[in-house]
């Protein structure tokens, strides 16, 4: 999964350069924007954490995709989270809304289409997750709007993914499921 994520990010950067989409403004986000991002991340983790555990208790197999067990898997999870946080934000909050806005003439339509495609891209996680991911996507768009850049959304996305993976692994150990989990 690391290679497709990195490829996604590189493709987004190349597209932004070719189509003149500004992705990296020189202005650093305000403390208010960083606080909003941190607050969103805390609320999101607290809201979703019980669902992570419940999905494991219910025997849903998808948790195995998100539970790095060994030190090597944890290092790879951090790299994957970083590449997803950067690459996915470059595509779905940066390049895609800009290009769709030009195409449709409407930023609102562009954001709706971006949210839908981001959610569908995560369909492997199940319908319930897709709906939650759509809500996350809307929140990430709000963070981009509030901060004036992708930096806060990238950071929050990265940290959230790391927390999710490490939490899944912790739950798997607590529930005695990790021994039966295949290596990632």
Question: Which characteristics define this entry?
Answer:
184 residues; mainly alpha; 75% helix; disordered C terminus
Can you offer a commentary on this structure?
The protein is mainly α and 184 residues long. It has six helices and no strands. It has helices at 2-18, 31-57, 71-104, 107-121, 127-147, 151-174. Helix 2 (31-57) packs antiparallel against helix 5 (127-147) and helix 3 (71-104) runs antiparallel to helix 4. The N and C termini lie close together (10 Å).
What is shown here, in short?
With 184 residues, the protein is mostly helical. It starts with a helix and ends in a 10-residue tail after the last helix. The protein has helices spanning 2-18, 31-57, 71-104, 107-121, 127-147, 151-174.
Task: Assign the structural class, choosing from mainly alpha, mainly beta, alpha/beta, alpha+beta, or little secondary structure.
Answer: mainly alpha
Question: pLDDT below 50 for ≥5 consecutive residues: which ranges?
Answer: 180-184
Largest sheet: none
Q: Roughly how much helix do the residues carry, as a percent range?
A: over 70%
Secondary-structure element series:
HHHHHH
Gyration radius (Cα, Å) is: 17 Å
Q: Kindly state the number of beta strands.
A: 0
Report the β-strand fraction as a percent range: under 5%
Beginning-to-end CA distance, first to last residue: 10 Å
| Overall pLDDT metric | 92
- General shape: globular
